[in-house]
Amino acid sequence: MNTKFFTKLNSKEFNEALSIVFIAIAVMVLVKIVPNEISSGTLPVIQNIFIFVFYSSLAVVYWRRKLSEEDVDLKRVVACFISYCIPLFIKYFAMVENSLFSQFEVGSILVIVGNTIAVLSIVSLGKSMGFLPARRATVIRGMYKIVRHPMYAGEIVMCVGLVIQRINVTSIVLFFAGIISLLFRIRWEEKVLSVLPSYQEYKAKVRYRLFPGLF
């Protein structure tokens, strides 16, 4: 990575730009409610509002945060961003094909549940939230008492809901691409955090990464 790009990536402008991107995504999701989905009933509107809240929350927490030099890597920045955007890719690039009402309804409920888990996780993290892993304070409150990466669990639940609404090759491929990027992030984050004694204790207390009893 060249020095000029490296310096820019470490500046506060990076996180401010990132926040602008996420708020633009949030606004796009909100605008998409009308007229495309509002005629379909209340549930699609509620679903989009929850997705809007998720991306708005990301925009708020990343505003004016500074990256530490040791954590910067272009491929990891790209992987992190893609993992955040997979729900959007599934929603807008995998078109709905003959979706039954019950199928769409179940999917919407999962999207809402997944978004709720993700936003509650962001709130639980507070100042320890960051785009890239760093040796911050270990968080053991809220959703983090249940699993070590609840925000990612919420994203997965959200994506499952979106795939159920539009089961096709594109949605399935995007879903597994999202899973791979999230597993990459988990492995990277735990490698960075495991040097902290507090995180080692946390791992001993909270055994599962994403879903209790499974993984």
Provide keyphrases for this structure:
mainly alpha; Four Helix Bundle (Hemerythrin (Met), subunit A); 215 residues
Describe this structure in words.
This protein has 215 residues and is mainly α. It has one domain (3-205): Four Helix Bundle (Hemerythrin (Met), subunit A) (Up-down Bundle). Helix content is 69%, strand content 0%. The chain contains 9 helices and no strands. It has helices spanning 3-10, 12-31, 33-37, 42-62, 74-93, 101-125, 150-165, 169-193, 197-205. Helix 2 runs antiparallel to helix 4, helix 5 packs parallel to helix 7 and helix 7 (150-165) runs antiparallel to helix 8 (169-193). It is globular, with a radius of gyration of 18 Å. It starts with a helix and ends in a 10-residue tail after the last helix. The model is unreliable at 1-8 (pLDDT under 50).
Short recap of the structure:
With 215 residues, the chain is mainly α.
